[in-house]
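Module 6 notes. Inverse folding takes a fixed backbone as the condition and produces residue identities as the prediction. Think of it as a translation problem where the source language is geometry and the target language is the twenty amino acids. Below is one complete input and output pair. Work through it position by position during the lab.
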């Protein structure tokens, strides 16, 4: 598939598919409960297989991206990723636009529980304008690529003063067919306790919504903050690609 064809496939029809699915097809009450309970929630079949393949194939189209990061050079792990440039591909822009309003009420409830004064507007365009006014103007959605023995160290995606507390990762490859290993991993550190790990199983087209850095947990004396990090375990065989949707931009 040529580069022009890849870019066209990644853009065409995506708005209709993702807008319908993200707005109507999912149990957002269940997603909110899972986020409150575990700090993460899965969304099955957010993208169809053909769209996953088109997005993954666009990795070679340099015109879509503003930068490339080789993780080993920075101590981030092994593998690489590329940040999209503006204007974002249709599917990426649409996911940001339609998923954000579903997550903003959860983010506001979390901040209220943790005693954080920041509140998030209903629409992503208004929130991204806030980021840009503060100098956070670089788009953060990204494509990640892993090969054999690659992994991603536990980390948090913080890019400046403004941080939307939830983000989304979509698996573009099929486990066992395209790769083995490479599990999505979350760790949660509670005060005066050891870290709690969790592996989130995903199939091609599935997404996981998860906390960027903090979330509230109810204790005997009210809510307290727990600290979360995420990463990817070692890919044993094959190649794994994912799409990351971060709702704040970077400085």
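Target side of the pair, the amino acids:
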């Amino acid at each position: 598939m040529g580069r022009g064809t890849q870019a066209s496939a990644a853009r065409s029809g995506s708005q209709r598919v993702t807008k319908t699915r993200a707005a109507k097809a999912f149990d957002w009450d269940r997603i909110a409960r899972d986020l409150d309970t575990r700090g993460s929630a899965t969304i099955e079949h957010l993208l169809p297989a053909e769209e996953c393949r088109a997005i993954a194939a666009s990795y070679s189209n340099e015109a879509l991206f503003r930068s490339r990061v080789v993780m080993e050079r920075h101590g981030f792990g092994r593998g690489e990723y590329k940040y999209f440039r503006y204007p974002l591909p249709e599917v990426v822009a649409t996911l940001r636009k339609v998923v954000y309003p579903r997550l903003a009420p959860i983010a506001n409830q979390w901040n209220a529980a943790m005693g954080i004064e920041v509140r998030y507007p209903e629409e992503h365009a208004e929130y991204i304008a806030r980021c840009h006014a503060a100098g956070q103007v670089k788009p953060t959605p990204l494509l990640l690529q892993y090969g054999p023995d690659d992994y991603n160290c536990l980390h948090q995606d913080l890019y400046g003063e403004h941080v939307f507390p939830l983000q989304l990762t979509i698996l573009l490859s099929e486990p066992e067919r395209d790769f083995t290993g490479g599990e999505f991993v979350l760790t949660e550190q509670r005060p005066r306790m050891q870290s709690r790990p969790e592996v989130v199983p995903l199939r091609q087209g599935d997404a996981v919504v998860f906390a960027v850095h903090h979330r509230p947990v109810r204790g005997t004396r009210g809510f307290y903050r727990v600290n979360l990090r995420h990463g990817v375990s070692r890919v044993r065989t094959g190649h794994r690609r994912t799409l990351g949707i971060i709702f704040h931009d970077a400085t």
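Reference fact for the lab report: The longest strand covers residues 222-232.
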